[in-house]
Write a structure and sequence with these properties.
heterotrimer, A alpha/beta (329), B alpha/beta (335), C mainly alpha (305), B: 335 residues, alpha/beta, Rossmann fold, 4-stranded antiparallel beta sheet, C: 305 residues, mainly alpha, MetI-like fold, 12 helices, 74% helix, ATP binding (chain B)
């Protein structure tokens, strides 16, 4: 497809540990289009962070290894690029922000020091000019009093401010793709609202594509254009955001949506998905969701479901497929 | 007056020394974690306590549990001041008030068998020993949805949700009447969170426990609570029955909090409420109304005077100048 | 370790099965630790040395060709030969036999000292770290005083004050070693104290003593074991030094340090007398040290997962 900025094909990642081989990702297909915000949802341990890290080849080897597949960024396979090329892409074309910005900021340098360094790494400017650019960057993320923020050390800033500094830094080199790994999970709701707002505004204005990883369906509904749902190392459903929330196709997606308590209505009992997320050392055969699936059939136990297009741009990896979706709700 | 009230907290205050103490050991600053908090919880009721990080909601829980001693204020359990108790009477009282913490993993000793982790409260309180402990642990595990053979396993062999069930079993085994839940599901995934919330509600329905449910997540609070108290910087700014609070929030902070939650429904996508700035640090609390620097409806009076709580509806109390002289209170007085 | 004993005592195989089920995790962890140790060459070397020393010590009565205190003046100071592998001393006693019996004494000293110092130090450290405040200050300042002397010098002074005997030497060395354990455990206890399960135990009505023995100490044990291994080596060295200057084992006890002490006088002409006991001290201490170091690496949770 032409609109694809990033195209992940059949990606498999495994971790080799004493306990056994962890099949963190198996045959993952995913595309991020130009200018869109793609939400990647899933529960703890479903592999969504591994996916994000493999795009930038940040998987520690050992114990992790990318077993196969291709990651096409602007048509070039990132898995075969030499490390030197890869480093140029990181930070220039693809940026990444993490849940805890403290891990990416050096505690012994001021924010100004670190931001200037990033600016001067990419642009040949004087220190003074770099300083000015930093102030502009901070103003763009609505940081009150940027001058004083630059003089501060990371630990003197609140979580929300640190995350804004990170966004400012990562977007300063105008990447084509921003990978955001649970960037608002550690923040309070009122601060999360600010950060989401800034992220939305800046990336839309510049046409930056975003791969937004989260477990919060509210954030997805609010921010994203398309959604991919992951379960146990596999993508189970991809859909435009409206379609996903209006007519979720996969039983897992439906379970997830029903399990979220709502601020707007009173529900007596929450629907919960029975059982627990399977371990990835010895995942269930066939469809990985079948032991917990209310609609499981015979073939689910041994046959991996193929993708079915149940609506425009709406793919579901489930044996129940189309009929089920139309039949229910 | 206290008919049917399990726990009543009156004027609780807890300051922690903060920052560098002066050169000669004089404290310069205090972190005012809890600054005059009063509330009550009725029999069989859940009071939800909601607020952002650093608002002091967890400290309130600690004060009720006796893990911190308040600098001022009283905690009454069925009318009895529990802070005044000593020795054996104190121990017997404490049994009635239990807790489930946020992180299911670190609330369990990794080197302790589940059987002991659940059963030790019986032993240390002299309530049971030997085979009796085993029998009661087994019954308790069944109650929270675990199997008897789970007794002989270690915490790390369980998933997060199961671990939280073990913690609930430990809290309930001595037969308390009142349980503090301190963010019990924030470390869990949504599908597991739903299981735990259902269990907590179900236990209440079957056994009539009273809960103080502390959380930062409004949707969770709405799901479990009968009444809700909203905290901001060490104070309760609004208390109301659940329905009232969510339909007609009165305090500007409560409203902002609700409008800042992204709704899991793209059809009702709307701009999230943007409060300016961050939550101020509890060391430097703004004068007057604590919320005034971020309040969209700030008035002159807010900068100087701390608003007193006013009753604006049945059981609905707000501490905000906007409602002074306009609310239920005024109407009732004129009638 | 958690104190859960299998309930059914009648059927031995059932009891074993139950034990295996209840302790499945420990068993797995144990084998995992073994697996990691096997891949660590210095651990294997240390383990082999320790095992052979233990074997020699236990088997000394059968392996040793002579009675270690049998005097045979006709054979005095004979060089190593097939009759006397390590030669004989100035009273004609077989040095090989004496060195083997010496292993018994040294290992016994090591274990006793680690037992006493480890036990007391762990309890002191756990109490100091868990209770904190004034108690912590008092305990730790007292231990700091002990630590501020070089351990050998302090042990010498104590042993001299108590009077020269093997028992007093053991007590002196144990006393000197207490702060090492206490400091380590205190550090860990400080961290354990903040974990939520401690708060939960308090709310459930557990007393401070109960918490120290059931939560704090079990969570510090693996580091205590590592330190214990290292301290065995150091203890053997100090105890030998004490014996060397006449403050430890008294003649005719075949103690390595005491043997070197006497052998020193003959070092110029009868090299074997002091050399073999010295070699055994060296090898044993190295064995314990490298095994302890490897154990520390292997038990480090950051390396494990």
């Amino acid at each position: 497809m032409n609109g694809d900025l990033l195209h992940i094909q059949d990606l498999s990642v495994r971790f080799f540990t004493y306990q056994g081989v962890v099949r963190a990702l198996e045959g993952v297909h995913l595309a991020v289009r130009r200018g869109e915000i793609l939400g990647l949802v899933g529960e703890t341990g479903c592999g969504k962070s591994v996916l994000a890290r493999s795009i930038l080849r940040l998987i520690a080897d050992p114990p992790g290894r990318i077993m196969g597949g291709r990651i096409l960024f602007k048509g070039r396979d990132m898995l075969t690029l030499p490390m030197k090329e890869m480093r140029r892409i990181r930070g220039n074309d693809i940026s990444m922000i993490f849940q805890e910005p403290m891990t990416s900021l050096n505690p012994v340098f001021t924010v100004g020091n670190q931001m200037e360094e990033v600016v001067r790494l990419h642009q040949k400017v004087s220190r003074k000019a770099a300083r000015r650019i930093c102030v502009e960057m901070l103003e763009q993320v609505r940081m009150p009093d940027p001058e004083s923020v630059l003089r501060k050390y990371p630990h003197e800033l609140s979580g929300g401010m640190r995350q804004r500094v990170m966004i400012a830094m990562e977007l300063s080199c105008r990447p084509d793709l921003l990978i955001a790994d649970e960037p608002t999970t550690a923040l309070d709701v009122t601060v999360q609202a600010q950060v989401l707002h800034i992220l939305n505004e800046l990336t839309r204005a510049r046409g930056t594509s975003v791969l937004f990883i989260t477990h919060d369906l509210g954030v997805v509904a609010h921010l994203c254009d398309r959604v991919a749902v992951m379960y146990a190392g596999k993508i189970v459903e991809t859909a435009p955001v409206d379609a996903l929330f209006r007519s979720p196709g996969h039983p897992y997606t439906r379970g997830l949506l029903a399990a979220v308590p709502s601020v707007d209505e009173d529900r007596e009992v929450l629907a919960s998905i029975p059982g627990v997320v399977p371990g990835l050392i010895d995942p269930p055969a066939g469809c990985r969701f079948h032991p917990r699936c209310p609609a499981a059939r015979k073939e689910c136990e041994h046959l991996e479901p193929a993708g079915v297009e149940v609506g425009k741009d709406h793919w579901v990896f489930c044996h129940a497929g189309r009929g089920k979706v139309k039949g229910e709700r | 007056m206290d008919e049917g009230v399990v726990i009543r907290a009156e004027g609780l205050r807890k300051y922690f020394p903060a920052g560098a103490s002066g050169l000669w050991g004089r404290r310069k600053a205090f972190l005012r974690a809890v600054d005059g908090v009063s509330f009550h919880v009725r029999e069989g009721e859940t009071l939800g306590l909601v607020g952002e990080s650093g608002c002091g909601k967890s400290t309130v829980g600690m004060l009720l549990l006796g893990l911190h001693r308040p600098d001022a204020g009283r905690v009454l359990y069925r009318g009895e001041d529990i802070l005044a108790l000593e020795g054996e009477a104190k121990r017997r009282m404490r049994r009635n008030i239990q807790v489930v913490f946020q992180d299911p993993q670190s609330s369990l000793d990794p080197r302790m068998l589940v059987k002991k982790a659940v059963g030790f409260p019986l032993e240390v309180n002299g309530l049971a020993r030997g085979a009796e402990v085993t029998r009661r642990v087994e019954a308790m595990l069944a109650e929270v949805g675990l199997r008897p053979e789970h007794m002989y396993r270690y915490p790390h062999e369980f998933s997060g949700g199961q671990r939280q069930r073990i913690n609930i079993a430990r809290a309930l085994i001595t037969g308390p009447r009142f349980v503090v839940f301190d963010e019990p599901t924030s470390a869990l995934d949504v599908s597991v969170q739903a299981q735990i919330l259902n269990l907590v509600k179900d236990l209440q329905k079957r056994r009539g426990y009273s809960y103080l449910f502390i959380s930062h997540d409004l949707s969770v609070i709405r799901h479990v609570s009968h009444r809700v108290a909203v905290m901001y910087l060490g104070r309760i700014v609004e208390t109301a029955p659940r329905g009232d609070l969510f339909q007609t929030p009165r305090h500007p902070y409560t409203r902002a909090l609700m409008a800042a939650v992204p709704k899991p429904d793209p059809a009702r996508r709307q701009p999230l409420a943007l409060l300016p700035g961050d939550v101020p640090s509890p060391v430097h609390i703004p004068p007057g109304c604590r919320f005034h620097p971020r309040c969209p409806e700030v008035m002159d009076v807010c900068r100087e005077t701390e608003p007193a709580p006013v009753e604006v509806g049945p059981d609905h109390v707000v501490a905000c100048h906007l409602w002074h002289g306009t609310g239920f209170d005024a109407r009732r007085r004129s009638a | 370790m958690p104190s859960s004993t299998p309930r059914s005592g009648t059927d031995p195989t059932g009891g074993w099965r139950r034990f295996r089920e209840e302790h499945a995790w420990q068993i797995r962890e144990f084998f995992f630790t073994l697996h990691l140790l096997r891949r660590n060459p210095s651990a294997v070397a240390g383990f082999v040395i320790i095992c052979s020393m233990v074997f020699l010590a236990l088997a000394a009565p059968w392996v040793a060709p002579y009675d270690p205190i049998r005097i045979s003046l006709s054979e005095r100071l004979s060089p190593p030969s097939w009759h006397h592998l390590f030669g004989t001393d100035e009273l004609g006693r077989d040095l090989f036999s004496r060195v083997l019996y010496g292993a018994r004494i040294s290992l016994r000293i090591g274990l006793l000292v680690v037992g006493i110092a480890g036990g007391l130090g762990t309890i002191l450290g756990a109490v100091a770290g868990y209770v904190g405040g004034k108690t912590d200050d008092v305990i730790m300042r007292c231990l700091d005083i002990v630590l501020s002397f070089p351990s050998l010098v302090l042990a010498m002074a104590l042993a001299a004050a108590l009077g020269p005997s093997l028992r007093n030497a053991i007590l002196a060395v144990a006393f000197v070693m207490i702060p090492k354990f206490a400091r380590l455990v205190r550090g860990e206890a400080l961290a354990v104290r903040e974990r939520p399960f401690i708060a939960a135990a308090k709310v459930s009505g557990a007393s401070h003593t109960w918490i120290v023995f059931h939560h704090v100490i079990p969570n510090c044990l693996s580091s205590v074991i590592v330190l214990g291994t290292l301290v065995v080596g150091e203890t053997i060295l100090i105890a030998s030094s004490l014996s060397f200057i006449g403050l430890g084992a008294q003649p005719p006890t075949p103690e390595w340090g005491a043997m070197i002490s006497v052998g020193r006088k003959f070092l110029m002409d009868q090299w074997w007398y002091a050399t073999f006991p010295g070699l055994f001290i060296l090898v044993t201490v190295i064995g314990f040290n490298i095994f302890g170091d490897a154990l520390r690496d292997v038990l480090d949770p950051r390396i494990r997962r």
